[in-house]
Design brief:
This protein has about 475 residues and is α/β, with parallel strands linked by helices. The protein contains 13 helices and 19 strands.
């Protein structure tokens, strides 16, 4: 059998729930993909930040092994790119004879581009030379302007930083976005790829629904503001959470009225509808190229967005599910048994690399944090599949040490900078009530620490210093061996 083609569409900031039919977001194309394929409903990124999540996606490794911890394109970068010796699945596929094409957002390394890792490049963004931040000269310019004292719709006042606008609509005629160029570049490629006998891989990196939430008016018109509910966790005052969580809400997002929060959610959903339209164009072009039957299509995102949960937007150090939970929908007519299924097993972005090498018959004996999802595509469940999901975060642009472990029953978050968190997910799916200081749950905390440290040992995680002022986990690394 000829090796399958591969089409990957990765969005930025998209929540997992927005691709499900029961969600209010209008996303008919990706929902149809799920009916024709498999939806992995419990897929998570290792860190809610573009660069480490994307590095995990391409390497099959967690940050402690691939070396990317935060944004590589600004002055707060903990690293500029991948650790020496880290290999990406794109290099394996190129060596296996695949015709490799990269369109859109990269954001894995500021030292290398996709072309250094086996790809032909088209319309690349967030590559070497990109800078994400503000220069001191721009701050000097801000100093010459009076600070805003009155908010506009969706605006957040930030003296000395500049006013931030959370959302906005534009006319269809005025709309201009990087995603348009990325989609067009991919559409130009697909007819030629469909006409060749050489197996190919096309990666399309879109930047929506990344904040700020700006979207053409026609997508906003799909949603009535009066129909947008506040999330169940919006009422969380976060008094039992790390103080920086509450500070982030009260200082910034707390400026928004409840109506503005709902409008922010409306704009986010509208951006998901816009992305779905772009995705639909790609699927239509794939069909016209007569390449659908033997093409594996993966729709996914690098990380999620709080989208009003706990009164927050975007992503950051608050370890809530919305920022970590990502969509992962796969269609492959020639390779999926019993399409239309949902898989509820814990899945990581680290699983993509071994999966693609598996389906491309390009085996590798190197270590992966992840594991192949091909058994799930064939409607079987590996007997040794993981029963917990781990995260590794050292902060976004402010530095913190945070690790978490989640099972079907509990989620434990070790916050080296503040109080820890424990949630009973069976009773508290919205992570409202922190049980970390409830003595009744001490055995649970010890078990979760044991799991956390065992994973840290397996992944060579250096967050284990024994010095007296930083050895703050309730149970230390020796638990890994008990």
């Amino acid at each position: 059998m000829r090796k399958p083609n591969i089409l990957i569409v990765m969005t930025d900031h998209q929540r997992a729930d927005t691709v499900l039919p029961e969600h209010p977001a209008v996303t008919p194309n990706v929902e149809q993909l799920g009916r024709d394929g498999v939806t992995f409903t419990n897929t998570f990124c290792p860190t809610p930040h573009c660069c480490p999540a994307r590095a995990t996606f391409f390497s099959g490794l967690y940050p402690s092994r691939h070396g990317v911890w935060n944004n590589v394109c600004n002055r707060q970068a903990l690293s500029r790119g991948l650790n020496e010796g880290v290999r990406l699945w794109s290099e394996d596929l190129a060596d296996a004879g695949y015709d490799m094409h990269y369109v859109g957002k990269w954001h894995v390394s500021s030292l290398e581009s996709p072309a250094d890792r086996g790809w032909q490049e088209h319309e690349i963004s967030a590559g070497p030379g990109a800078f994400h931040g503000m220069s001191w000269e721009r701050y000097r310019e801000l100093a010459s302007e009076p600070d805003s004292t009155q908010r506009g719709e969706g605006e957040i006042l930030r003296p000395g930083y500049g006013t931030y606008r959370t959302y906005g609509g534009v006319s269809d005629e005025e709309w201009s976005h990087h995603d348009e160029g990325a989609t067009e570049a991919a559409l130009d490629l697909l007819p030629g790829l469909g006409a060749t006998d050489t197996p190919w891989c096309l990666f399309v990196g879109l930047t929506s629904p990344h904040d700020p939430y700006y979207v053409p008016q026609k997508y906003l018109d799909l949603y009535d503001l009066e129909d947008i509910p506040l999330p169940p966790s919006y009422a969380d005052e976060m008094g039992d959470k790390p103080h920086v969580y509450k500070r982030m809400r009260d200082m910034r997002w707390g400026q928004l009225s409840e109506r503005e929060v709902c409008n922010g959610i409306r704009h986010f959903w509208a951006m998901c509808s816009y992305i779905d339209d772009q995705f639909g164009k790609l699927l239509e072009a794939l069909d016209k190229a007569a390449a659908s039957d033997n093409t594996l299509v993966l729709f996914c995102s690098d990380h999620g967005d709080y989208c009003g949960e706990h009164g927050l937007f975007c992503k950051g150090i608050p370890s809530f599910r919305g920022a970590y939970h990502v969509p992962a929908v796969v269609r492959w007519p020639a390779g999926i048994a019993n399409p239309g299924r949902r898989v509820e097993a814990f899945v990581s972005l680290a699983d993509v690399a071994p999966t693609l090498l598996d389906i491309a018959a390009a085996p590798s004996d190197r270590y992966f944090t992840g594991a192949s999802l091909v058994p799930f595509l064939r409607d079987t469940t590996p007997g040794d599949w993981r029963d917990a999901l781990h995260t590794q975060c050292n902060g976004i642009e402010l530095y913190y040490t945070q690790r978490s472990v989640m099972t079907k029953d509990y989620k434990y978050v070790f916050n080296g900078f503040d109080v820890d968190e424990l949630y009973n997910l069976r009773k508290d799916e919205h992570e409202m009530h922190n049980l970390a200081h409830d003595s009744e749950y001490e055995p649970v905390i010890r078990d979760m620490c044991r799991r956390m440290w065992r994973f840290a040992y397996e992944e060579d995680d250096s967050a284990t210093n024994p010095y007296i002022t930083v050895s703050l986990a309730p149970y230390g690394p020796a638990e890994a061996f008990r």
